[in-house]
PH domain leucine-rich repeat-containing protein phosphatase 2 (Cynoglossus semilaevis), 1352 residues
Amino acid sequence: MKRNGNRSCVTRKTRFGSREREWLKGDTQRGCLCLYGGTVDPQPPTPGPQSSSTPQTDLQLVLCSTSTTVEELCAQRNGHGLYVQLHGDLIRRLDPSERPLQILYDYLTTMGYADPVRVQQEAANADLSCLIRFYSGESRCMFLLLGRTLLKGVFSVRKGKTQLHKWAERKVILCGTCLIVASVKDSLTGKLHILPLVGGKVEEVKRRQHCLMFSSAGSQAQTYFVIFDTLTNYQRWYRQASKVVSQTVSVVDLSCYSLEAVPEYLFYCQDITHLNLRHNFMSLQGPGGLLNLPKFSQLKSLNLSHNRLGVFPQCVCEILTLTELNLACNNIHIVPEQIGSLQSLQTLALDGNHLSSLPAELGGLSQLNSLGLSFNNFSHIPAVLERLESPMDKLAMAGNRVKSLELCTLARMTNLKNIDLRLNELQRVNSESLEVVGQVTQLDLRDNYLDSLDLSSMCNLETLHCQRNKLGKLTLSGFTLRMLHASSNRLTAVCVYPVPNQLTHMDLSQNLLEYLPDWVCDCRKIEVMDIAHNLLSELPSRLVNSMSLRKLLAGNNRLLKVPDLLDHVPLEALDLQHNKLTELPESLFYKALNLKFLNASANDLKSIPLSSQSEESLGTLQELYLTGNNLNEDCGAVVVGHQSLRVLHLAYNQMTSFPASKLSKLEHLEELNLSGNKLKAIPSTVSSCKRLHTLIAHSNNISVFPEILNLPEIKLVDLSCNELTEIQLPDSLPSTLQELDLTCNKNLVLEHKTLNLFSHITTLKLDQKSTMAARDTPSDSLPWNHGYSEMSGQRNKLCVSVLTVDHFGDKMEACYGIFDGDRNEEVPRLLQCTMGDVLCEELQHSSVDNVYMCNTFLTSHRKLGMAGQKLGASALLCYIHRKPSDPGGHFSLTVANVGTCQAVLCRNGRPVPLSKIYSLENCTEEMGRVKRSKAIITEDNKVSGVTCCSRLLGCSYLSPGVLPKPWVHTEPLSSQDEFLILGNRALFEWVSYQEAVCTVQAVRDPRAAAKKLGSLAQSYGCKDNIGAVVVLLRVGEDSCTCEPSFSTTEPRGPTPVSVPVSVTQGPFDPGSLSSSSGVVSEFNSETSASEIGSEAGSTASDEHQSSGSASRLEKRCNLHPAATLCLFQRQPSSATFSSNQSDNGLDSDDEAPPEGVISNGSKLEVEVDIHCCAFQLRSGSPDSPKDIDHERRSFHHSNGKMCGQNNVVVSATNGCLLAVCGREISDLKKFPSASNLFVKKLSNGSVVAPEDSHNIIEVALEAPKKKSGYFTAPAQQDPEDQLIVPPCLEQEVREQLKGQNSLVTGCSAASTAPFLKEPVWDHPHPPTFHSSLVPGPGPAQILQQEVYDTAL
């Protein structure tokens, strides 16, 4: 161990002992620093246990404080320097005065950790290295070359053309436009030689086999000879390097190399015109410093953005040939006067700095036409721009602090054409001056605080963006107006004079317009008009009959009628959804012959017009959406007249049939949605639609599987929530079929042959049939049940995952979540499989909702590892629980979210939003925080052009602009709360909160309701992934099912005096989490292994019944749990077979496999979707069939803790059921948390228990085999060896029990549960008390006490 003065800096190779741990606990400003590095030379012998002559390991643990500097750490370790790497990206050398531990603590605090003790603990976590990592030793700057590497390998290398140099084995990399040769074999440590190849030569060396000569350009060219080991490598390198050297433009791209200096060889290349040094750590001094850049005499473009320079490098002002200079994001505060010497400069980018003024010399740049000043600290437009003589194409000043805009100032800037003032603090645009602003053609005022806007003085304005302000009135000049974007305001009037005859695009959506102004109808060139989400009650006839209008979006208004078409119009797209229409114009289809898209969903249509006046239609309609109307089966004959249809949505109408003879005419049909009708069958003529790839017909009365499996392009079939009984299949299924949903068909019976045919389907969703009676369904035992829906839309992959756990932990709790990866599926799947477990772990450390929820998100963010560096996901987690201080009280709902996933609670029929939308457009404070972090927000309102969310799990490379800290809110639940809706951005973007609530109220079945929400969103126009979870709540007094207590004191047998002792029904494993994403499975999660075993034919102890005094248990509900009453009886002498000692719960070889479990020959699968698994894991079970029956009667008798469940994981081996329980479950749970999500998603959507690297098949194959009717079980305990309390010791036992734990209500979990905050027993293995009658004096007082099994 080494110590460094009074800094208390300790270095240790392996792990710390008690001394070091005590030192850490003494002060939260102390901590552990993990230093990574390659093998270095051994240190000289020094006194102390750390002295060693062997090389140090790659990872070293260093104890230090937040005041310890890099210089002190290096001196203590005899090191060369320290480097820091963020998010697996760039590696930066730390200055000697920087403090590494303080950097680490600041990073964790910025992430969201608030507790100093937790920060100290997280800093020592090895998983944190994917977010922030410290390196020691020599330069690590070339670690990141691998991401840009074209070719690499270890070959014989010789430098120079003379024979004086020797050949040596070196690592060679062809990266970007450079050849990199390491000075150490097979390693990137040491000095790295960089040879630029652009303009150089690659030649074959004929004197040596497989040898190439690489030369750079210029008079001081360097040469390297490389001998390759094989002909293949030789040809590959020659071909690739030839492409690099043949580039005609002298461009050198060294961006993202973690460079501190420009390679010296580049200064001899006189032809370089473009040099990109973006995202490095360039220094001014040194041989390759920026002070040497003027050596590039032909340089025209220089990019030095994101280099942490801190000052403007004045040396670049000496490069007089520069036409483009980028110094964005460099913490620059002042621009020097020397900038005026760059007379050839045309583009200057100074975005993302701390500038508040510009030098007067900048006005002398006669060629400047583009100036970027976005995301600085300007409070007004710099006056120096008035001196510019050249016409400026664009002035970008987004994200500054401009509060007022004077139009007279713009009038004096006679050369300014395009101004970007979005994301400022504009509250007023002063137009009192009569000066005409004639030069400005484009103006962007998005995301400000304007309440009125008068730009009538801008007579040449062509494009205006003013979305997301507070505008009530807008006045413009229409002389040259071409595009107007004014959505998301409060507009009631828009005045444009004169009539804008050049206007082609106009967006006035999401305003308060009650009528359209007259000038709109006079626009001669209007092509696209969006007036959706207003208060319009009618559309002008002249607008609909316009001869230029091609796209009209008028949905979500109050339209009662659409004007008739008087003549043929060029209309191509018409959106009329969410209005009050009862009919469409009769001439719509044969007057608008170019109409290709029509959406009239969510109206009150009872019929639709004919496609033509004759039998033959000339229309070109391709997409027709009529969901949510009152159409009957008569509309089918009309619809098929549009023979060019590709997409047809007729969901949630009143159709009882579809004309079979007509459907065959839709030969081009690709997508058909008939969900939510009253159809009894899909016409067999659907087989004529050869291009059909999607059929959605859930929530009908279909009993016969349609003839669609012969279609060559079929991909998705959803027939859930129907009345299917059997499926007639062809000999082979189409290879294109990717998803088949047959859930909620209660009468459907699938043969093994059918299931084998389905084995290749990527996502197969089936019901798991319950083995329990209807009276034991989950809805009767829990105050909630749920349904889910996931739809991929028009994307090829599903990037949404949901988490649903009805039984969370050992208490009456639940956990639900939804994760949206936008365009990636990896992060949502990782969160689905880990986040529930993380929440269980965090609940052991804190009971404060804001603390454990926040830490759950931050820990999940860390656990994403390398996947979370570049990818991210929105996440929402809902946790239903009782207060720890009041375990028998009311339920509460704690919601936490990042990103755009949302939760809505229905209370008294009204939506109550519980989440916060973390997007830049919806959250003003988040917009301000991102701006303060100097992150660049692009014109589409995305952080660095990547995501519109300011908070995500993952995407750590966008930190601190994007953070993982969640919004946390706790809402007490009451009897007025009906259900909870969870959805991603795509769902609530198209379905409002109120409509979502009304939809679920009308359906009530959570599975069908979730399906309907997804179908509605798709019919309204959503093309993205959709995820929805519906949770029905019954947590009020109305759901109470308690019965009066019937207690009798008269025993059935001899009257004993009982000892006040309680028993538990069996230890409950905290890992009983189901990570399923829905409730598709009908296999009851309350089914225990003992129940399966007894009901499947176990006869070992069926006749055994306990005799003696017993009290009838009072039937209680989960809302009012009562203590479980059980007398302490003497153990009978006859042996009792305990089903918790059986490995599978089956007793004979002729048992049939359960429904839903598939055996494909030797391949074993559980064909249940990841969202369907209701199975849970548990290690204990009742001891006898009597206890089994007792479990069923007293299932509700728990106080926030689930008892009476022996959870199983089911697989199949040659048609036999395996129940993995007992020790097998303990083997499955070798993780830090015992509350694991025991699922793993297979390629076909199945669920398995994720053992370290095993699936359910491997676990099942390792289970014991049957022997003589029963599985081999552990040796059973002899009844004579079980603990019997003699009468003389009863009083002593009573006193001991009272002293240890009294009145433990409900069924307690086993003492081995890791999440019990305080152990009930001090002894690690307390004895087992079996139910028996023990005489004793005194009245019988009933107490609750833990009972443990001592059988080995």
